[in-house]
Amino acid sequence: MKSLVLEEKGKLSLRDYPIEREEPMGPRDVRIKLHTVGICGSDVHYYTHGGIGVFQVKAPMILGHEASGTVVEVGPEVTTLNEGDRVCMEPGIPDPNSRATRMGMYNIDPAVRFWATPPVHGILRPTVVHPEAFTFKLPDNVSFAEAAMVEPLAVGVHAATKAQVKPGDIALVIGAGPIGLVTALSALAAGCARVFVSDIDDRKLELAASLGPITPINVAKQDLTQEILKATDGWGVEIVLECSGSPKAASGVFDPLCPGGRVVFIGSQVHDIPYSVGKAMVREARVEHVFRYAHVFPRCVAMLSSGAIDVKPLITRTFAFDESVHAFEVAAAAPPGEVKMQIELPQ
Ligand SMILES: [Zn+2]
């Protein structure tokens, strides 16, 4: 069976890539047969731009990091997983002895090896060897497609955790892409009474509004701060979650924020952006940043299983593995209304 290989910027191929035969199995590792893989903005960016910041594709690399699958082999010291278990996987493997990991911040361990981040291969391929510690068993009522959404959902849950959502908070999520929508769902699950979601794509906003007590704001037609102030009696929102990665949106996060509010920057910024320290200061705003996530995969799986969060409406398109190259062309064209596209591997 083949793998989806990014040969170089703009060039993808489905071809045999003998990586599995080279992968050693440690005593606490499991081998997983991949089932469903989500296409992430970062995968698409590597395809269209050949790199993200310091991570540049210099040799052929297999794409994909949002995955679910089935355990097909377990190392001799594995205790929590068995052959045949359905699982999802955390794509970053930190160095267990690094200072950041020992302090619990394994996601910001500078030595973390993360799937489909050069030079580490991703998982659009038949099987992968992965540590038991970063592999999570799925309850029967969580599908492979939902399980492949746990990775992006983890970003939203980590952001809601950083925001320290209190029951009844009102939040604004800037950006209605996959990360914006999982962040809105996470904010609601964490206790927000209402979430505003802003974007310029009416179809994504319509989808957002169907997910719960979510008020859409189209910033191409409406003034974001005015709408928020109007809806909150001039007070503003307790939490702003910036998921757009737009420099303009990110530099305006304090305008709709209430006194004592919190801002979490989630969307990546390629370049430096200006923001008003004065506006942050008069609000005593607390500003947080997230980089991926830590310690939240089991929480995400539990919320999908209990129904506290439903990610199914976010999966707008599914491709067969042999259509992978086409799937990436579609994703790169960013058709309006599409949120999460996934690829299903043959079983
Ligand atoms: Zn992702």
Automatic annotation (TrEMBL):
<dbReference type="GO" id="GO:0006062">
    <property type="term" value="P:sorbitol catabolic process"/>
</dbReference>
<dbReference type="InterPro" id="IPR011032">
    <property type="entry name" value="GroES-like_sf"/>
</dbReference>
<dbReference type="InterPro" id="IPR045306">
    <property type="entry name" value="SDH-like"/>
</dbReference>
<dbReference type="GO" id="GO:0008270">
    <property type="term" value="F:zinc ion binding"/>
</dbReference>
<dbReference type="InterPro" id="IPR020843">
    <property type="entry name" value="ER"/>
</dbReference>
<dbReference type="GO" id="GO:0003939">
    <property type="term" value="F:L-iditol 2-dehydrogenase (NAD+) activity"/>
</dbReference>
<keyword id="KW-0560">Oxidoreductase</keyword>
<dbReference type="Pfam" id="PF00107">
    <property type="entry name" value="ADH_zinc_N"/>
</dbReference>
<feature type="domain" description="Enoyl reductase (ER)">
    <location>
        <begin position="10"/>
        <end position="334"/>
    </location>
</feature>
<keyword id="KW-0862">Zinc</keyword>
<comment type="similarity">
    <text>Belongs to the zinc-containing alcohol dehydrogenase family.</text>
</comment>
<keyword id="KW-0479">Metal-binding</keyword>
<dbReference type="InterPro" id="IPR013149">
    <property type="entry name" value="ADH-like_C"/>
</dbReference>
<dbReference type="Pfam" id="PF08240">
    <property type="entry name" value="ADH_N"/>
</dbReference>
<dbReference type="InterPro" id="IPR013154">
    <property type="entry name" value="ADH-like_N"/>
</dbReference>
<protein>
    <submittedName>
        <fullName>Xylitol dehydrogenase</fullName>
        <ecNumber>1.1.1.9</ecNumber>
    </submittedName>
</protein>
<dbReference type="InterPro" id="IPR036291">
    <property type="entry name" value="NAD(P)-bd_dom_sf"/>
</dbReference>
<dbReference type="GO" id="GO:0046526">
    <property type="term" value="F:D-xylulose reductase activity"/>
</dbReference>
<dbReference type="InterPro" id="IPR002328">
    <property type="entry name" value="ADH_Zn_CS"/>
</dbReference>
